[in-house]
Design a protein that fits this description.
Mean pLDDT of chain B: 88
Low-confidence stretches of chain B: 470-482
Strand content of chain A: under 5%
Number of domains of chain B: 1
CATH class of one domain in chain A: Mainly Alpha
Distance between the termini of chain A: 90 Å
Shape of chain B: globular
Distance between the termini of chain B: 55 Å
Number of strands of chain B: 14
CATH topology of one domain in chain A: Leucine-rich Repeat Variant
Number of helices of chain B: 15
CATH superfamily of one domain in chain A: Leucine-rich Repeat Variant
Structural class of chain B: alpha/beta
Shape of chain A: extended
Number of helices of chain A: 19
Mean pLDDT of chain A: 86
Oligomer: heterodimer
Radius of gyration of chain A: 29 Å
Strand content of chain B: 15-25%
Largest sheet of chain B: 10 strands, mixed
Number of strands of chain A: 0
CATH topology of chain B: Spore Coat Polysaccharide Biosynthesis Protein SpsA, Chain A
Radius of gyration of chain B: 23 Å
CATH architecture of chain B: Alpha-Beta Complex
Helix content of chain B: 40-55%
Largest interface: A-B, 53 and 51 residues
Strand order of the largest sheet of chain B: 3-4-5-2-1-6-11-8-12-7
Amino acid sequence: MTVNSLVLVVVRVEVAAAVAIVAVLLGAGSLRRRRAHKEAMVRALVRQRVTSALVGRGAPSGGPGKLSKRTRRDAIHAVAEYARTIGGADRGTLAGVAGQFGLSAYTKRLAASMFWWHRLEAARLVTLFGLSSADVRRMAADGHWLVRAQAATAAGSWRMQKALPLLITMLSDDAPLCRFEAKQALVQMGVDGARAVGDALREGIELAAGTELNARRTDGLLDVAASTPQADMVDLGLAYSRSPRDTTRCSATALLAALGGPAATDRLIELLDDDMGNVRCAAARALGTSGAWSGASALARHLDDESYDVRLAVATALQRLGAPGTLMLRRVADTGSGRAADMARQTLDIVEQLSPVGA
Amino acid sequence: MSFRLLADMVLVDIQLGVLVYFFLVNSFYGLLLISATVEMSRHLLGIRATDRTRLLGSSLVPRISIIAPAYNEEATVEESIRSLLAISYPELEVVVINDGSKDATVAVLERAFDLVRVHAAIEPAIVTQPVRDVYRSRTHSRLVVLDKMNGGKADAMNAGVNACTGDLVCAIDADTLIEPDALQRLVVPFIERSDTVAAGGTIRVANGADIRNGRIVSVSMPHNALAGIQVVEYLRAFLFGRLGWNRLGGNLIISGAFGVFRRDAMLAVGGYESETIGEDMEMIIRLRRRAFATGAPGKVVFVPDPVAWTEVPETAQVLAGQRDRWHRGLADVLWRNRTILFNPRYGAMGFISYPYFLFVEFFSPILEAVGLVTTIVALAFGAINVQFAILFLLLAYGYGLVLTFATLLLEELSFHRYTSLRDQLVLIGWTLVESFGYRQRTVVWRFRGIIKYFRGNKSWGKMERRGLTRPAASDATSEPEH
């Protein structure tokens, strides 16, 4: 075979491949347009069924038996779209509608699959339609991090108390998304989540300076606690604010801010002198959030901090404190010099020109 | 040996070299396509049935500051900033930097957003041209406007990085339209992996789209031929090029028109390099080099579904300037980072990504030009077989078609933004004809960029914007002076 004839063969293969791809491209486009029409019909059926179920008039005529396997899947996903916007008992009703379209057989098949994306789809569907604690345990032990993260989402979404220990364990998961979702879920759990977090923090005081796993878990617990503060957590906030790890001290400041009170304020003022800039920054923000007027003069002293981020956080905190903060800002702007006065003037401008309350 | 024989031998050797180059480059393109297909499948499976709106109610998401530099953008700036302020994200700040515009950019902003001047106390963690004024809006608390002396796009971005307060910085061009849920999608890599320092989304061509109130209402292929061909180019560059790199040594570029970065990492590398016109690519390479040198986080990812829309040039003159500038930027960045080449310290970046950008992206106009000229000369001298030359050209053309059609198929099977049969046929049509005239012209423009680079030209040239929502042409110029 000569070189020319070899090249000719390759050219022919290319032409065949190009024609085939174009055919698939146009075919896929045409199929999509036709399916869009079919999907609209399925959605109409789903809408009708959901409306009937929600107003308690029972299922309309024209059952799911007429749907093809593929359309059945579309129908389940169409009901799932509703589930995102509907809560409470109506969600159970929706699960019933999805059940009529064969939800349980479909999710069971997906959940047992060897492919992670099938298990993930199953996990997302059970998240929407309801799940058992066994489902959550299975998902939380999955080898794929996306499925594990979904377990946390599901537990939070259904406020599943039995999953609290799993969520707390997941705060030290290797995958950041799992840790993020576990935190979100614990926050969603409200008081129950807060109590469990408080207990875990109490147990972990002696471990705070321990391994990286413990550190991740502790910081995560403190973040959750700051979003769902309980009055009996002051001692925890104070204890963790003395942690040798700067990230833990930062997380503790948010908890102290959320709790407030003289002890928390005094400790936050102390933390304004921390060696680490990120901790000073967090302490300043926390004082602003707590709204503790007694922190105003301490904050004003730190308008001259060597770190710009700290100065900005201090100025913003003073702005948030209202009248006493503005008074301090004006004092520094009038009598101070250099970077402290600069920052005070900028914040005063914002307070006076933009806030409806003014100075 | 006669001169004729020697010339024939040289020509044949050059042709052989071009053939080997062609084979290697196209094999790599095939690899990129496979990688892109795998990445796309994985991504689509991962986001199926997901509910991203949950992030909207979360207090745990990182704060994002959008940094939008503007230079003589009075025609489009109000619309663009309104679309930025309408983005759905819980912790968002928008910082607009007027880079010494000569037109009424600041006046338009002042009037549209009820701006008031506040005392400036911004610490220049990165040295920039002086900031003259800082403005805050009475009507939009999330908006900050900086008015600074002209210093170029990189300098303006650096001023924005200094002034912003987000954990993440979203770098965009002031005329880019970001889809409302794009940030919710682009923040995911930062939540999923703690070592992510930069993430980029897809840029699509806005010409031809129906845009109302800063939002894309419907998409269709542009009527202008140059814009139409660029739609094909952008799809190929993002869906097949950038996506493929996620698995093959990592991306070296995140588009300056739409990318998100960790602010602390940007500050650690000293911000954008003002002395180059390829500042977006240069920043990415510096972030990755720092990661190799210090063990700091350094993952750069491309995510295909967050979308930003941009207006592309519709005249050859403006397009020529843009391509010439892009190529000069590429040359400059590659030269500045030449020590990466085949350096084991940089792993796959030293042995795959950098060599690709050098030998394929940078040298391709030279080699294409050499290949074309020597083929013509060799044919004239009878040094190569006419039939072979024609077959080889067909082979090259066919391979390009297969790759581009495969990209169009990837688009159809994933995001299918071009929904009508007409649009699909137009896309196929532009794919078929882009190799006749258009491609050769881009070779010339890029070749000119190389020559200008060696002559030390670092100007941005001019880019005329028609204005994304205005049918009438405006005379704005988006590139700063140097």
